[in-house]
Task: structure prediction
Amino acid sequence: MPHANALYGPLDPAPDAGYEDAPPRMGFFTDTSVCIGCKACEVACKEWNGVPQSGLDMLGMSYDNTGALTANSWRHVAFIEQPRPVGWATPAFEGNPDGPAVSPATAAVGARTSADTGTEPGLPPGSPVAAARMSAGPDFLGMPGTQPPGRGSGAQGRTDFRWLMASDVCKHCTHAACLDVCPTGSLFRTEFGTVVVQEDICNGCGYCVSACPYGVIDQRKGDGRAWKCTLCYDRLGAGMTPACAQACPTESIQYGPVRELRERAAARVEVLHERGVPEARLYGHDPDDGVGGDGAFFLLLDEPEVYGLPPDPVVTTRDLPKMWKHAGLAALAITAATVFGFLGGRP
Amino acid sequence: MTDSPSNEPVGARFRDFQAQLDQPDGRRHRKRGRGRGDGGEQLTVPPADFTSYYGRPILKAPVWKHDIAGYLFTGGLAAGGAMIGAGAQLTGRPRLRQVGRWTALGGIAASAYLLVHDLGRPDRFHHMLRVVKLTSPMSMGTWILTAFGPAAGVAAIAEIAPRLPEHGVFGLARRLAPTVGDVAGLAAAATAPALATYTGVLLADTAVPAWHDAYPFLPFVFGGSGLAAAAGVGLIAAPAADTAPLRRLTVAAATIKFVGGHRMGRSSLTGEPYRRGRSGRLVRAGNVLLGVGTVGALLSRRSRVLAVLSGAALVASSVATRFGIFDAGTVSARDPKYTVVPQRERRDSRQGRSPAEKGT
Amino acid sequence: MGVRSWIEGWPVYRQLTGTDPLGRGAAAKSAGSRALSARTETADSVARSVCPYCAVGCGQRVYVKDGQVSQIEGDPDSPISRGRLCPKGSASKSLVTSPLRQTTVRYRRPYGTEWEDLDLDTALNMIADRVLAARDETWEDVDDEGRPLNRTLGIASLGGATLDNEENYLIKKLFTAMGALQIENQARI
Amino acid sequence: MIVIQGSNMAEAHPVGFQWVMEAKRRGAKVFHVDPRFTRTSALADAYLPIRAGTDIALLGGVIRYILNNDLDFREYVVAYTNAATIVTEEYADTEDLHGLFSGFNNDNASYDQASWRYEGHPQDATTRDTETQRETAAGLEHESHGAPVGGETERDETLQHPRCVYQILKRHYARYTPEMVERVCGIPQEKFLELAQAWAANSGRERTSMLVYSVGWTQHSVGVQYIRAGAIIQLLLGNVGRPGGGVMALRGHASIQGSTDIPTLFNLLPGYLPMPHHADHPSFDEWVDSIRHPGQKGFWGNARTYGVNLLKAYWGDAATADNDYCYGYMPRMTGDHGTYQQVLNMIDGKIKGYFLLGQNPAVGSAHGRAQRLGMANLDWLVVRDLFMIESATFWQNGPEVATGEIVPQECRTEVFFLPAASHVEKEGTFTQTQRLLQWREKAVDAPGDARSELWFFYHLGRVIRERLASSTRVRDRALLDLNWNYPTHGPHAEPSAESVLREINGYDVATGRPLSSFTEMKDDGSTVGGCWIYTGVYADGVNQAARRKPGAEQSLVAPEWGWAWPANRRILYNRASADPDGNPWSERKRYVWWDADKQEWTGYDVPDFEKNKPPSYRPARDASGVAGIAGDDPFILQGDGKGWLYAPTGVLDGPLPSHYEPVESPVRNPLYQQQANPTRKVYTHPINTLNPSPPEPYSEVFPYVFTVSRLTEHHTAGGMSRTVSPLAELQPEMFVEVSPELAVERGLTHLGWAHLVTARAAIEAKVLVTDRLTPLRVDDRIIHQVWLPYHFGFEGLVTGDSANDLFGISLDPNVLIQESKVGTCDIRSGRRPRGPQLLDLVVDYRRRSGDLNPHYPPQVTTDGPDQEV
Result:
């Protein structure tokens, strides 16, 4: 019988998906505080998985010319320039004859670009204002001069600066909406607890694309199928590390049993807090969150949406029983309406 | 050579930037609660000061083409047709039965075409039959269609039996057809309510904010709309003598849609696309057409022309409603506001923080 | 028999009879997924190599299948790189298998406007002719004071720093013996 | 602590950077000094923005800070450096001569180094005059050892003697105050002090600090002195020869270290033996003596042996003691034959043929236009590469075709493009940045006509020797007698790389036994060895470079992975990790020490010292060579066994690093009247015009400082990255990074176009406006800097204008490396003109900056009014 938490709440997904004696759940912990933005993960992934090119356009989003996770980019390194202090370093431009920070304004320009990623929906343009706010950080009020001296985009000149980099990837949710809504069983849960598209099955119905609360999965043009990170299912089967984690020079991407990674992540947050980085926080690690915790979770230095992550995602199928209930009532209603239509006029 | 950056250019730069912030897409300075669709009531939409990575969408917008919006219409129409066909069959209105059954077959054939056409890999449409997934409205829909389609098809084809030759194999078919058609017609009608309403779940069971948050309403809107559209086809195609049930049906269907869906998109931020922009206009057009069509239908007892016009309005209402809702979903997925703002509110209220404190 | 295995292969049957009634995992696994294996496992051979880009000297393992490079990735045994690679190193397979690679000799004759094809052996002989001719034409035996020079300044060479030590050794040896002095390398730049 | 300066380690050496992150995780502080905030800065604990080309001023400030606050590691400094050594009273400092040292000769703009010598040493310390040393880049010979100098020195270990090196240093750097650092570099004083304090605090007995640099230091007209300045700090703080210390040169290419060890350089032979010079080395003995400098201490005393072994490796049986081992066959240098001289000679029609072997000077070398025009004026050009690079297609697609300077129908250069084998299609060794040789196994056959360089040169040699087989000309003897017998294999007759490696390693002629160490080499012709510093790589007939014992199964030093020269030593001068008595300076920093019981040096690494020479050993007064090294002299390849704070000879632009402005600078040197390096190599060729700099007029026409470097996503001239799809898409367009302040000043918009103009060229790029660049306050002026990647060219999947086109050619005098990390330019909004109008724009700028004649800033500028200091 399905688990009581089959749709929502803490769950070990592999046994729920019918694997007896499943190996421990495997996943990623991406520690963005040590990411150097080298994009080795993006390339290593493409090399191993034969992922096609995703466009040759310069996006003006700092050093990010990939733009987003798409069917043709299964790892995506985000770059965010902010006139904010970074906890571990002294102010970068203190004492220099600077004017106000420009990063919000340039981010606004970067929001308008787009690229042909060869996928659908790929990388549509964004909102310049939201981009500006991302770059200035959550303190941003959109009003130059209203901020404390030396902070944000205050006209007094910039002293602090930080450059956030983060490698995003499919979250391999405990409750994976993409998987649950897939009508062909192409998306399935592996014995490692990961979520994989089976390319011999997918018929490109596109349902998973709308279902994903993180905007990860995407459809490849021409090919028609949906593609995303497989957490290198083939490599896992051979006892190997996924290509991105193996390549990552600074261990920003760590691979291992999710349980162990969660402990490691908690310890790392503590260290960063001790070292004066209070904004360090984990994202997607909590089995009690809206998706039952992510198999790939993150240590972030700013709000999730700054990195393009939803602040509080909930798996849509949490509400599925209620949806069916409403559909049932509606079905009854139209049946009644039909009966009324044909019998209502009879004396 | 170069001096300290003077204040003027910096000021100019920031004036430009400020001007950019005030562009429509910011909406921060807009007066809220405008527009006809809002009915003038004071909305509780929070200010949309949110962040996202270069303002890009957080969600992937639906990749479904308008095929699917069309299917939402044709599927509902087919379901309504089958139900009208069965009602006519049981109440002895053969011509209305015929119209109902043909509507069902036409609707379901178009649906099948649209669904397969929308696939990235149409040659793999049969992979839909690999699994039965209770968690996937599309899988459930597939099985509903699998039950409904053949039944509706048989029922409709049975209607051509009188034109078959009287002897031989065809003769046998001609004799068996009415019975088979009746059984099939009832079978189609039995699955039709599910077909008419599951599409509401199909859209709602996504991360698309406007769709998901409308899950209590969508099945009613879709069910009512489908039934009204089928009634509209009946008003157009069925003889005047048979349209009395259709008028009652229209009123009932419109009631379901308006009552079941009246709160859809009303007060929430994620309902905004149902009120604003092109999608909002379509949704409103659907409502207006439904109202007009229903009133027209009620008054059309003696006017064939008015019956036809009313029927057309009902059909058009259904088309507009489906496309409007479909587009509203796409709009809500494309704008990160609809993703970030409600989620932050949810998170902050859970953590006992007021929105003003967020970001600390 | 055929029908039976067909039915048993139908995931719905597995859903009904197995441990995965919701069809989320075990029941939905496809034939392709069951047959999946890492291509490093099925490689014919593995060569231990070194990344050709920067000078860190990261270890690479080069996997070969049917005479083609099928994968290049970091060598975890390397105490220098511990199996890691940067984006360039990670792209090594694309580098060596790039469709843009030139694999035939190309020749542009003087005042020509297009490339032409040329046989490798012919090219080698033509180059030898030109080397000898340039050397003869520009040979310097002695300087003004009669001190030996033994050289030609008519030939120059500039090498990249992705050349092997062995290659550099032969280049320097041959050019020195022919009196060609102007042998340079990226190391100057 | 780790100081990264002149290097963008996280971007250019990401996998090496893992060790920086490892150190950071354990609490190390990382400082990054760079003209712009990079991915390295993002991870650093402190970032110091600096004006490009002023690093010596900053480092000099640190030296002054250490000396004035007595923060040096005194025991180490007294025992292991030449701080106590007394210098002759003829020496005069920059303090006395407005930025010049004593001995400057105006006629040839070079120094007579005699007045820099140690007290008591003879006048003729150097055999070659300084100008010749510059022309032949003699500084490169010192990669493996110091310049020759007598072993015995006069010392004052109290460091009080006014002419001891310590006091000279103190005086020389007296003016490098925090205020001056701020004035020159644009680094606020507080920032400077943060660096200086941390550096000193994290050095000494218990702690060590590491200094990391790359071509951000070498590609300057004062490049060698940058590194000398860094080395002085590390010596003063006791950070050399010790774990966690050192000066890390991060080299940029897979085997660029190997390319200097076994050079394809005009002035060097394998193992840093100099190429013979026609005047200085007419005979074998004179050549040998010029290297070993009779009387000096250290291993370089055996130069004759190394020379004989090389000549025997070249000419085999033909090389005998009677014919000076065929020394007479060697071609002779007469001056500068370097790559930039070659290019100018090509333009002048003096060179017939050119080989490009995996190198793309049309994009990768300074002054791209000169490179392309030079190649367009050859008889023939051979390009061997993986891809159709810009240097092969300049006649067809180059920018000069658009301007009309090259017309394909009129360009006579005959071009042979020969496809090359990739790194997986051949076997051989790369020498990586820490002198480690690693053998690559061959994975697959090369496709089509693609061949290794080994194949090409072996068979080219074979064909040429066959052609000359019947020749009786004397000049052909060197080719005919050449030892050119290498076994071949396979369908293409590929020569055996291992057999070449064996020859490089050396072997006993009679028995064929491979040598285990260069100490086994003989100078009587009985042994052969192609590169003495590599001897041991084939010890016991085993390819030591192919060793791959997993790192996890070894100590941190991992001695059984590959093979490092010399003698598989991983840290050079590691004798300095122990105190003069041979004990570790501290338990934390234990590395190599004297085991008194076994009477030998031991430790984690191969000791860089004679194994059984006790710390107490003192040489006889007249001892020379290896025997002259005392038991507490760790710097065994230096003539006096000491680390050189002060270079009494060998460094052509002065015994101590001094800040000179880059050749193109918008700023008058605030430190000295002497503006730029007075001894820099200048090419007065019409194509090589330079932007004016103060004190000359019109420097304001080129008001901005530009610098170029790498992106993680691309490699050098782009031949191995712009052609590779997963890399090309990551950085798909040429761009220029500017600060918001400069963007306002010049009307540049983010993602819009801009073009940059110098006296050589104008190029265009997309604009990236970013907070990562900052204006600097320099000498009460605001200086703006811009940055460009130099990876782009006109071929490949992604294309763009080449940043190197902007540079002129000015070289460091010691090694003849070009100043391509800093120049001046103007930047304008919009795209550059097309076609001939492009030339008009450049001409217009040249007119505005003086006149249209070729322009070269003056070498010496000390005759102006005194600078306020």
In short: The CA atoms of residues 12 and 175 of chain A lie 10 Å apart. Confidence is low (pLDDT under 50) at residues 143-155 of chain A.
